[in-house]
Each structure stands twice: as structure tokens, then as C-alpha cells.
Design brief:
- By secondary structure, this protein is mainly α.
- The chain is built from 14 helices and two strands, in the order H-H-H-H-H-H-E-E-H-H-H-H-H-H-H-H.
- A hairpin with a 5-residue loop joins strand 1 and strand 2.
- InterPro entries: MPAB/Lcp_cat_dom.
- Residues 51-261 form the ER-bound oxygenase mpaB/mpaB'/Rubber oxygenase catalytic domain.
- One of its GO terms (molecular function) is oxidoreductase activity.
């Protein structure tokens, strides 16, 4: 196949995937334009660990890993099954998560506050019952501190471990990322997020011992996460990303999710695919470019 045709197909795939993730094939949906607004740098320093982690394409692997890991907790899993539109509009749910992550990473504090208000209003409607690991029926609310802590830790653990496992650089280290990203949880009502890798791992171990486990919905949701309604070409790329995500999970998490361990070779394959995407899409996202323009304007 001529090089031009290979480029065209890869560009088409990149545009399609970016549309699925953000809602716009140019990576700049209407909500992202809000990143240009405001008169401060936001919660995180430009080119700090949070910018480096969330500005890299490793977030594609981290995002899939986070969705899988969250499914290991019966309460958030029940919230997804009972309140989300993952079956009827799975890409809408993914785009919504991308919106919050992107605005919180690159937006001004004012824009972040507005986005957190939107998310909190959505969370206020999410409540119900689930079966805990003792077999008892328990209540959950998306705004419960324990619920928020798990979701935050699943995201934090997934993004930092995927970033490092894929071989992306992080000069200031993982502790800075965990400490700084803890700020993102405060507008959502969580004030005691882990501030270091050691604290993060200790918190995750507490969840493993006391909260995590498989329910009747676990395998159903996991299989849906692993095989979303993409076209054949998009699904091939997604499989590479998903296998890389699975390769970073530990044995306890794999057992709960009903998954078999994947070879670390998938991380190398995924890194190669992401390198191709990066060459096509450019070194920085449109959202990151808007953030730089905003910061330059106020400097």
C-alpha cells in the first residue's frame, strides 16, 4: 500500500477515535473552548507532572484501565449499571469523562469550578442499592466520601501506572503527580485524597481487603468495556489499547474482573501505535494549546 494511503487510513482512524473520545474529530468540542477563558493558570503548573501525564496519549490506555478498575468495586459498578448510559451511549459517557479530565487539567480555576458544579449536579442524582461483599444489601450515593475516594484512586493509579509502563518520561516523578492531582478531587467534595504513591498504594490495598469483589454485573460490564461498538478498524486499535491496560493490572484485580493476564509485549505494541498517532495528531492536544494561549495572555 502506498505511503499516502497508509497515512490517510491512519489519519482517518485517529480522527474517528478522537471523535469517540472527545466528541469532536478535531479534538476541540464546544466545551473545550472554555479552556481559553479565565485569568489564571489553573490548578496545575504548565509542564508539571499533571500536564505531562494527561497531555500524553498514554491517557488512552489509562482511561480504559480506569474503567476496568472501577468495575472491581460493587458500589460504583452498581452506579454505572443503574444510572449511566453505557449500553445505549457508551461513547457519550467516555466523552463526558474526557471533558471533566481535560477541563480540570488545563482550565482556569473559574472554569474548573463550573465544570465541578456540573459533575456534582450529575452525581447528586446517582444513588441506589448494591450487594456488598458480605452479601448484604447496602445503599450508595455517588457523593459518598468512600465512593469518591475509590473513583479518584482508580483514576490516579491508572493514569500514572499506564504512563510509566508505556515508557513515557516523567522527570518530576510519580509522587508529584499523585500529590498535585489530589487537588482535582477537592471541587468534587473529596479533601483527603492520597498525596504520594505510598499513600495511594496503601489506600488501594485497603480497598482490595475490604471493598473490592465480583458481582453478577461485573463480567457483563467488563466485556462491554472491552468490546465497545467501534468499527472493525477502530476495534483493532482499541484491542491493542485494552490489552496494554490489562497488562498493567495486578493478579487480584484480574481475578475480580474475570480477566487473564496479558503479556507486557502489549505495552510495546501500544506504544508503537501511540507513537504513530502522535506523529499525525501533533505533540500537544488542542486543549493544551488553548491553555498555553490563555496563560501567555495573562502573563
Amino acid at each position: 500500500m502506498p505511503a499516502f494511503h497508509k497515512f490517510f487510513l491512519t489519519k482517518h482512524l485517529a480522527d474517528s477515535f478522537r471523535k469517540n473520545v472527545s466528541g469532536s474529530k478535531d479534538g476541540l468540542p464546544d466545551w473545550a473552548k472554555k479552556i481559553a477563558l479565565g485569568d489564571d493558570a489553573g490548578l496545575f503548573k504548565p509542564d508539571g507532572s499533571v500536564w505531562k501525564v494527561h497531555g500524553s496519549l498514554a491517557t488512552l490506555v489509562g482511561g480504559v484501565r480506569a474503567l476496568l478498575l472501577q468495575a472491581a468495586h460493587p458500589a460504583p459498578l452498581a452506579g454505572v449499571a443503574q444510572h449511566s448510559r453505557y449500553e445505549t451511549d457508551p461513547m457519550g459517557r467516555l466523552a463526558g469523562t474526557t471533558r471533566w479530565l481535560t477541563i480540570t487539567t488545563f482550565g482556569s480555576t473559574q472554569t474548573i469550578e463550573l465544570e465541578a458544579k456540573r459533575v456534582n449536579e450529575m452525581h447528586s442524582k446517582v444513588s441506589g442499592e448494591y450487594t456488598d461483599m458480605a452479601g448484604s444489601r447496602s445503599n450508595y450515593r455517588a457523593q459518598d466520601a468512600r465512593f469518591l475516594l475509590w473513583v479518584h484512586c482508580a483514576f490516579t493509579d491508572s493514569f500514572i501506572k499506564s504512563h510509566l509502563a508505556l515508557g513515557y518520561p516523567l522527570p518530576d516523578g510519580a509522587d508529584e503527580y499523585v500529590r498535585d492531582w489530589a487537588k482535582s478531587a477537592i471541587p468534587l467534595g473529596l479533601n483527603d485524597a492520597p498525596k504520594s504513591m505510598a499513600e495511594l498504594e496503601a489506600t488501594l490495598e485497603d480497598f482490595r481487603m475490604n471493598d473490592l469483589g465480583r458481582t453478577e454485573k461485573t463480567l457483563e460490564v467488563v466485556q462491554f468495556i472491552l468490546k465497545p461498538p467501534f468499527g472493525s478498524t477502530g476495534l483493532l486499535f482499541y484491542k491493542i489499547i485494552a490489552n496494554a491496560a490489562i497488562a498493567t493490572l495486578n493478579s487480584n484485580e484480574l481475578e475480580i474482573l474475570g480477566l487473564k493476564a496479558k503479556s507486557k509485549i502489549w505495552l510495546k505494541i501500544a506504544r508503537g501505535a501511540l507513537n504513530i498517532f502522535s506523529a499525525i495528531l501533533g505533540p500537544e492536544s488542542p486543549s493544551q494549546n488553548l491553555a498555553r494561549q490563555r496563560i501567555a495572555r495573562i502573563s
